[in-house]
Amino acid sequence: MAKRGADALIDTLSDAGVKHLFTLSGNHVMPVFDATIGSGIDLLHTRHEAATVHMADAWARLTGEVGIALVTGGPGHANAVSALYTALMAESPLVLISGHAPLAQLGQGAFQEMRQADMAAPVAKASWTCAGADSVATDLALAMRIAAAGRPGPVHLSIPSDALEATVSPASTGRATAAAGTAAAPNPDQSAEFSPQLSATAAAGLLARLHKASRPLILTGPASMTASARRHCQALAQASGVAVVGMQSPRGINDPALGAFAEMLNQADCVLLLGKRLDFTLKFGKPPTFAADCEFLLVDSGPADSARAQQLLGARLTQRHDATAASAITALTDAARRTNPQAGGWRDEVGQAIAYRPGAWDQAQAAQPGRMHPVQACRALQPLLDSHPDSVL
User: Fold this and answer.
1) pLDDT tens string 49-95
2) pLDDT per position as a tens digit, 225-279
3) Is 80 exceeded by the pLDDT of residue 120?
């Protein structure tokens, strides 16, 4: 039986271990629905296209896998795009696959024809339109690699309906893999981030500077807040004696989950930004959020974010390395285990500050009879969240 572009798409997802496809059906993508029959991939149907992306986002954060969302073209794609921004800021690896007007009809007033890739580009790591059935498998595999590489994030791929329905040529029937090496995305303005590793020498230098400080901190971003990544961060804190604080909320230092952490941040004399963007969540590194003489170290795989930190901090940024947060956490932990760690007194103080909760929360009650205060609802839910092995809250 001849393989269609839609079949190649499902084969690629199956080979990557994808078991769940978050979707909302539509004319442009119905061939994909047919191709999933017998594939072992579950179709989780939503009622709004943005929900498909939010669910793929949540799946990626909880499992560490690349989430996959599938929507139809035109207004279906437009509905989904807004949710990409949330995933981008959360550093969540996912791929939005959008149906698209047929390639053979472009420029002729095709059904729901629009410039979909251009629409998604500002809120995605990469965004492009598949060129035909022979490119479906390789484009999807590339999209998944880009989503997971460097600083994770969402990628958009539009696949024209005739590319899904057309037969794949015999020369292109080999399986594409999402685990292969990195490559550049088709559009030069949204090139793929590679995944540089932090060297042992660089890790030793960073650790030496942290241990020289009296009140050092390591701050990580959303990509280091998955269940697995948090375990690695805890191992780093234990081995190094330095507090490792994950920040994922757009509230930044005002996140209630961080307790009184903001008060400790001002006392730090050396801060390693480990994949954590220096942005509004950290008040751009300026006093009084940070001490005027606080020294900064940086590990980041995003050139734009690294350059921005250099511009904001100037001479206060004394070490800067291009590497992924995951590789840096591993390298720093290994380096710490080969040295004598710093005493954990300051680390423990930071932990106590993060654990702080106002005493008034214990007695919080709704002012109106028959109503429930939000704290009462959250108090009942918290033990369940704490007991869940994949909880990221």
Assistant:
1) 999 999 999 999 988 899 999 999 999 999 999 999 999 999 999 99
2) 888 889 999 999 999 999 999 998 888 999 988 999 999 999 999 999 999 999 9
3) yes
Average of pLDDT values for 124-138?
95
Q: What is the reported pLDDT for 5? A: 94
Q: Is 135 exposed, middle or buried (0-12, 13-18, 19+ CB in 10 A)?
A: buried
Is 182 or 165 the better-scoring residue by pLDDT? 165
Phi, psi of 264 (to 5 degrees): -80, -35
